[in-house]
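Checklist before submission:
- one chain only
- standard amino acids only
- sequence pasted in full

Submission:
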Amino acid sequence: MDYDMTCDRSKKAMDLFAEGFNCAQAVTLAFADLLPYDEKALASMSSSFGGGIGRMREVCGTISGLALVTGILYGYDDPKANEEKKDHYARIQEMCKVFEEENGSIVCRELLGLSKKHDAPTPEARTDKYYQKRPCKELCGMSAAILDAYIKEHPYR
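Returned file contents:
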């Protein structure tokens, strides 16, 4: 899948992260115009996924935001719809594979080069030093660009 880091949604996600939204919120809110929820609800529903789910450094929040938006746009709601479930999981895996091929992982701590699994719940201040040592802003842009490319190639319902 070819994606464009200069697309509007990529830039929007990076700007939202720079404003102070967490990584999952930034990606989710970059697609707010396509979703049937207001921005406040979207920010709230994606707020738990920052820092690899509550700063536990698990799955990258940008991937969680990508998955949340994908579920809203393409997801299934019938627990017995096995074909739709399979298709949906394949869709998520396809986008995660693109991200992982570029970055070596979809796990927050691995992307950040951290050795410990859990982190303190207090977020770090967003200083120039923070942005120099953290790729999070760019990862927000990449996840948004990957999802944007997917949406352009696969119209949703």
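Reviewer check: The chain is about 60% helix and 0% strand.
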